[in-house]
């Protein structure tokens, strides 16, 4: 089983991106809808930072202080996919963004915000 992120890219400051996270590989891996999903990010030379998490069934969400009010985490269990909508992006948001669910980490997707 793998977890795969997508949707990263280059965007100007003030712009938006939507990241996606979905399991791939064997269907016998895990049942996506039963697990919380979290996003983390790591900028060059910095430690990995918590960004957001959404609970099983999407009943609760939490955000890191640096992204509150700008990012929104959501999930569509019919599509086995979680999303991170990122608005009002700032150069400080530049990082590799990682998805984590059911104990699995993805390989990350690069987000670069130009000033």
Question: How would you describe the overall organization of this protein?
Answer:
This protein has strands spanning 2-6, 9-12, 17-24, 37-42, 49-54, 61-63, 71-76, 81-86, 95-101, 104-105, 109-114. The protein is an all-beta fold and 115 residues long. β4 and β5 form a beta hairpin.
Note the beta-strand portion: over 45%
> Which class best fits the helix and strand makeup?
mainly beta
Distance from N terminus to C terminus (CA atoms, Å) equals 37 Å
Extract low-pLDDT stretches.
Answer: none
Give the helix level as a range of percent.
under 10%
Count of distinct strands: 11
Query: What kind of assembly state do the chains in view correspond to?
Result: single chain
Quick one: biggest sheet?
7 strands, mixed
The total count of helices amounts to 0
Name the helix and strand elements from N-terminus to C-terminus, one letter apiece. Answer: EEEEEEEEEEE
Q: What is the mean predicted local confidence, pLDDT?
A: 94
Rg estimate, integer Å: 13 Å
């Amino acid at each position: 089983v793998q977890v795969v992120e997508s949707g990263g890219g280059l965007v100007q400051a003030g712009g938006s991106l939507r990241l996606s996270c979905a399991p791939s590989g064997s269907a016998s891996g895990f049942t996506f809808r039963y697990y919380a999903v979290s996003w983390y990010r790591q900028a060059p030379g910095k430690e990995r930072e918590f960004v957001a998490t959404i609970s099983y069934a999407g009943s609760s969400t939490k955000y890191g202080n640096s992204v509150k009010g700008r990012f929104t985490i959501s999930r569509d269990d019919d599509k086995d996919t979680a999303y991170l909508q990122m608005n009002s992006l700032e150069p400080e948001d530049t990082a590799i963004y990682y998805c984590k669910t059911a104990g699995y980490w993805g390989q990350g997707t690069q987000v670069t915000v130009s000033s």
